[in-house]
Amino acid sequence: MLKQLKKKSFLRSLFFSIILLIAGTALALFHLQNAFYSAFGYDNFGDLAPEEIRSQLVDVELWENYGCFMESGTQNTSTRKVSIDNYYYIIYTGNMDDEGIDYKYMAIRVPAKYGDQMDIMAENTWNYMITSPLTFSGKIKKMDSDEMRYFKEYWQDAELTDEEIEEMTLPYYIESVEYKTAQRVLYLALFGAGILMILWSIFRTVKAAGGGYLRKLYQDMAQIGCSEKDFDEDFRTAASFAKKDMIKIGRLFTYYNVNTTVPRAIPNTKIIWAYQTTTTHRTNGIKTGTTYGVAVYTTISKAAINIPVESEAKAQLILHRLSSCFPWIVAGYSDDLANLFKRDSAGFLNLRYNTVDHVLPDYMPPDNDPYGAQQETVTK
């Protein structure tokens, strides 16, 4: 059975590792170019010819613009007031020298606080006047349908045909940011996260292949010196109390998370208290559901082991099985029991654990006899 659990653990881990690998690879590749520019420096936008425009990170020293064609903002849902966040302005790419060659028009999106300065620059541009430059940094992006519509309307108002607009313009804009360092850190972090996800997926696969996720299960077995042979027999004959055998109770162990990457086993001779937990979930004061579980306390750790179950009925079946087959376990909850457990652990143990012989049942009721009582017992 240990071999089967190892195989299931490996397959479960492999499935998640593959998803992790795919997601990490996609994240790293998507931000590879951004991370490259963030690490080694942004391109100088003025050095880029129109055919070189793609999705670079660029620094822009802007001397001229040809006016605003679009604004974007957010609306307060209560007051309906719109707050302008950004303005879009027409700029050109490449070199616009005396020969007037190798340039096309595109756009730049700037934070709203630069609106007045950009408007003054646009007016001076149309009047052939020199303005002090503004410096921006950001990423070149392709316009979406709305941005492209307003961009084309700007040129249509200038009585250009669609053919002329297509020949003279590029469907890109520079999304400038106020804090270049923050942008660089973000892109490097996203790329690094992708690389870490790839490395984690490889680590998980190697660990699962070596049975590393069963380490805690072997520790559970070592708590009572259980051999693999005895474990296999106990697991094979254990009764199931959940879908897909996720919870099983045998003579030696109570098993949980059985078909997960990290299956666990609680030695029954170490259990001192078990009770049902009920959690009511609410959203905005409205009940949305209830979940159930079994809290198990042992002599191994002060913290409870919380085992999710499908229903209240299943929780009660588990508690009855534990209390009927292992009489040293206190089953059920009360405030008095909780206070005693918290204030006087020795007194709690004297309720049953220290006063009842720890004898394991020779016969365990089958799955279809959940309320079966123990018959002959044997000292363990």
Task: Give the helices and strands, then pairings.
Layout: H1 2-30, H2 32-40, E1 43-44, E2 57-62, E3 68-75, E4 82-92, E5 105-111, H3 115-126, E6 134-142, H4 145-157, H5 162-168, E7 169-177, H6 180-209, H7 215-222, H8 228-237, E8 239-240, E9 248-249, E10 253-256, E11 264-267, E12 271-283, E13 286-298, E14 305-309, H9 312-325, E15 330-331, H10 335-343, H11 345-349, E16 359-361, E17 377-379
Parallel strand pairs: 1-2, 5-7, 12-15
Antiparallel strand pairs: 2-6, 3-4, 4-5, 6-7, 8-9, 9-10, 10-11, 12-13, 13-14, 16-17
| Unreliable stretches | 371-380
Global morphology: elongated
Distance between the termini: 22 Å
Which strand order spans the largest sheet, edge to edge or round the barrel? 1-2-6-7-5-4-3
Helix content: 25-40%
Instruction: Report the sheet-strand fraction.
Output: 25-35%
Briefly note the structural class of the backbone. Answer: alpha+beta
Number of helices: 11
Kindly state the number of beta strands.
17
Order of helices and strands: HHEEEEEHEHHEHHHEEEEEEEHEHHEE
Average pLDDT, to the nearest integer?
Answer: 89
Radius of gyration, in angstroms, nearest whole number: 34 Å
Main beta-sheet annotation: 7 strands, mixed
